[in-house]
Automatic annotation (TrEMBL):
Keywords noted in UniProt: Signal
Species, as recorded: Sinorhizobium garamanticum
Database matches in InterPro entries: BUG (IPR005064), Bug_dom1 (IPR042100), TAT_signal (IPR006311)
Signal peptide (from-to): 1-30
Pfam family, one: TctC
Name of this protein: Tripartite tricarboxylate transporter substrate binding protein
Amino acid sequence: MNLPQITRRRLLAAAVALGAIALTSSQSFAADGQIRWLVGYPPGGSTDAIARLLAAPISKKLEQTIIVDNRPGAGSSIAAAALAKSKPDGLTVMSVDNGTLVINPVAYRTLQYDPDKDFRPVGVYAEVNFLLAVGKDQPYKTVEEFLSQAKTASNPIAYASPGIGTPLHLAMERMAREAGVKLEHVAYRGMAPALNDALAGVVPSIVIDYTTAREMIRSGDLRPLAIFSASRLSALPDVPTFGEKALPGFSAVAWQALVVPHDTPDEAVTRLSDALTIALQDPAVKSRYEQLGLGMPASDPESFEKRWHDDKAVWQPLIRDLGIMLGE
């Protein structure tokens, strides 16, 4: 499906806004050689761009060159399998998310890595905030109207997502269950076609991340109804959370984090974690995060490990209950 030119420009702007930064340095911290930062998604996407944004101050702190190595495919599983086989010397790291560590081990029939056995946490470095939104011509003005209609409509309201088993799909399904409503999931192969159809009115609603949606919200083409996170976004102060309006205590966000091979030495993990913490304090990073509505959580290995395992308890039973099975 071809995207309208205006949509193509806006989607490109959402990715480019994060920026791609060239990395240079002179000295390594672990033996010699460069750090290879694996990214399981294509260049230009948000995961890739956030990695490059953070890699610059991390490289400066460690006085070591960082090379971003994109290995897209199978929901980041290709890159994860490569990390699992990498030498645990502190010279190979990877961007991971809920999908890599929590969803894939349950949703994929076969997987060439085991997160619990193959990886060691370094730190969470970003929270990606989700929205329930509708096109500008849809009748729903508030989340209360949307949920009320969903409870009484003879046919479920349809919503678009970037794919089956993605964090956005699972967040919407969990919200619907807790709200006691039935919705019709329309799965697309990526956010671009899902957003295109939501803007065109082909599907009435969409679950979308703020980073991608922000330009369409600013233009008025997309109307945000509610935020999935626990707190309102500073960029959208008038948009309520689901917890405020319908589901007390409810929250669902995606996160991105850094891991290394499981047997990486403590010293290397500590130095990487410390460098990540300093990178998150960089004024340019903080400013860009605020612009894009990204959360900046604690980055130490211990809090990351707890969050990882807490999320398994929440999301893996839902995946099994929904019967999601990916791959051949």
